[in-house]
What does this fold into?
Amino acid sequence: MRRISKLTRVAVGVASLGLVATACGGTSSDSGDSDSNDKGLAIAYDVGGKGDQSFNDAAYAGLTKAKDEFGYKTADIEPTEGETDADKEQRLASLAKQGYNPVIGVGFAYGPAMKAVAAKYPKTTFGIVDSVVEGKNVASLVFAEEQASYLAGVAAAKATKTDVVGFVGGVDVPLIHKFEAGYKQGVQDTNSKVKVLSQYLTQTAEEGGFSSPDKGKAAAEGQIEKKADVLYAAAGLSGQGVIEAAAKAKVWAIGVDSDQYKQAALAPYKNYILTSALKDVGGAVYTLAKSVNDDKPLTGTQTFDLKVKGVGLSESNPEYAKVAGLQDAVNKAKQEIIDGKIKVNTE
It folds into this structure.
């Protein structure tokens, strides 16, 4: 199996996946029909599961696209509350044993489990989102979240009227630090007078930082009381609470991972979702599935950044184009990041 060090340009653009599924629920699978050549694609969700309108739903969109295009039978498996690495390992091993290929763990929490399981199933291609796992049959699907977050910071600095904006991180871990670092830098580079309030909901995922809308709502309300009028959340399902609080207070929210302006479950709040920092998790899932379908499975670290449209900023809300100077500032910053004129912080 060959190792490919850089992302091939088969990645789907962020906008191409359209609306992601919004259904909540438990484990689901599709046995496929007799002419599917027994190809199988499985994803194991991160904390928050399907229906988070964000990270996990983006992965599901990629699975659905690959199923429709390549005839994969599919399975998507929900996490359980308080699960251990051993539980994750058992889940991944079960999927590989059933013949699914590729098997993708959605979220860095699958790192230890995937390293152990991939070694036991060398003929199966594994993928992990948001973490680097060494293995001859593992594709590490990582993103330049800081770049999309920088653009979100530019937008926030242009949209604020109080010169105070907020950041809500789900869990205090290095991955979410990338979101915060890029956002702060984008704000400060655009307008150094703007103050950024930052808060993390929990220290560990087990405490519910990625899965507690009530925690997100409370944090947002606290920042709004301190005059923040643009709130950016990188908090999975908890981010829904941030968006709800922003809409109630009639201030701007910035979504994350998926284009949250388009999510059906967030429709009551959509007018207050200025934009979303996009992360094409669905495109990454699709790309890996396509590579296996083409008998050229990707392995090694695959980096999705602005150059390959792996991250970006949505423009779905018509109000986005009405904020003075916002669109031009974002476009300029985007090109300068791609050209290497702006180096975005990751911590």
